[in-house]
UniProtKB/TrEMBL annotation:
GO molecular function, one term: monoacylglycerol lipase activity
Record InterPro entries: AB_hydrolase_1, AB_hydrolase_fold, AB_hydrolase_sf, TAT_signal
Span of the signal peptide: 1-29
Lineage: Bacteria, Pseudomonadati, Pseudomonadota, Betaproteobacteria, Burkholderiales
One BP annotation, GO: acylglycerol catabolic process
All residue ranges annotated as the AB hydrolase-1 domain in the record: 81-331
Keywords: Signal
GO cellular component: membrane
Name used for this protein in its record: Pimeloyl-ACP methyl ester carboxylesterase
Length: 349
């Protein structure tokens, strides 16, 4: 494991610079016609805390997994692992990292293989099992045993798979608007080939990201603070590695569609906290479905209640006015609920 320290930058300052169209790009970034261009491993985009690299072998390849490891000033003896979503990165957990560290948690926030600052392998069999194994290997390399797994969106599907594979190492499970609360293919969403997903991903732009996030993640609302995360993603699709970024993204969409976790909720035995923005409507491949099928998908209030009923030791907290990303839409309300839910679990051996 070799550490790599990124330069610090204020995200609020970055947002202001984006909006003023006077973005001061770090070394390694280029300027495209419509915004910054980053490398395939987000070279040129700075994270809010130092970034380290976990180097390991997987499927016959030498890979590196980027992560942040933030230690609290006054430790409470617990570790929280933050698992990002499909259109997110470890950096988007910035506020949550700080809140948890202030509360005494050691916080590990990795970028999964295929995402953000981690390796983008040209040939890789993506599965939630593989990503869980990679994450477990990272934690073992850091000497971390039991941890609280906090997953958002696709990271929620990964957190469930991790908890099923490593129940003895999962102290508590927190699912923040996880996808995978329903099986889309079983409900009639047509299958898209990896080639189809790849063609779609090559068309990704800042405008398409922004439109999708505004309608789904933020319940029709938009704030200046969200723009850096749009540029973070769009920058990889403007950069020299855009084809590899798009290819890995296509493989990941296929993984999400074909590997449901909803049927295994009853096997989770650890305390589970569901934090759900009710205005979320996320469903993979929904736009490819018929209008009749589309109307049945992504009803998070109903899906959340069904999940809470299926998971043996679940606590459901709903945010009626939030969308897919409650931790970003209202950080104060979200983190109050998160810390309360974490504090309700007694620390065991």
């Amino acid at each position: 494991m070799k550490p790599f320290l990124s330069r610090r930058r204020s995200l609020s300052a970055f947002a202001a610079a984006c909006l003023a169209l006077s973005l001061s790009l770090p070394v390694g970034a280029a300027i495209a016609a419509d915004g910054p261009a980053y490398g395939p491993e987000l070279e040129g985009f700075d994270y809010p805390m130092p970034v380290h690299r976990f180097e390991f072998q997987s499927q016959g390849q030498a890979l590196q997994m980027a992560y942040m490891d933030v230690r609290p000033a006054q430790p409470n003896g617990r570790t929280a692992v933050l698992l990002h979503g499909k259109n997110f990165c470890a950096a988007t957990w910035d506020d949550t990292i700080r809140r948890l560290a202030d509360a005494g948690y050691r916080v590990i926030a990795p970028d999964q293989i295929g995402f953000c600052k981690s390796s983008k392998p040209a040939a890789y069999q993506f599965s939630f099992q593989q990503l869980a194994r990679n994450t477990h290997a990272l934690l073992q390399s850091l000497g971390i045993g039991r941890a609280t797994m906090i997953g958002h969106s696709t990271g929620g599907m990964l957190a469930v798979r991790y908890a099923l594979m490593y129940p003895q190492d999962t102290e508590q499970l927190v699912l923040v608007n996880p996808i995978g609360l329903e099986d889309w293919k079983a409900k009639g969403v047509p299958s898209l080939s990896v080639d189809d997903w790849y063609a779609r991903e090559l068309k990704t732009s800042a405008d398409s990201i922004r439109r999708y996030e505004q309608s789904t993640y933020y319940a029709g609302q938009w704030r200046d603070a969200y723009e850096p995360w749009v540029q973070m993603l769009a920058g990889m699709y403007r950069g020299p590695g855009r084809k590899q970024v798009a290819w890995d993204s296509a493989l990941l969409y296929d993984m999400i569609y074909t590997q449901p976790v909803v049927y295994e909720f009853g096997q989770l035995r650890m305390p589970t906290l569901l934090l759900i923005g009710d205005k979320d409507t996320t469903a993979i491949g929904k736009d490819a479905a018929s209008p009749e099928v589309r109307a049945t998908l992504g009803h998070y209030p109903e899906l959340a209640k069904a999940a809470a009923k299926a998971i043996p030791h679940a606590t459901l907290v709903e945010f009626p006015d939030f969308g897919h990303a409650p931790q970003m839409q209202d950080p104060q309300a979200f983190h109050a609920a998160l810390l309360k839910g974490l504090g309700a679990v007694a620390v065991g051996p």
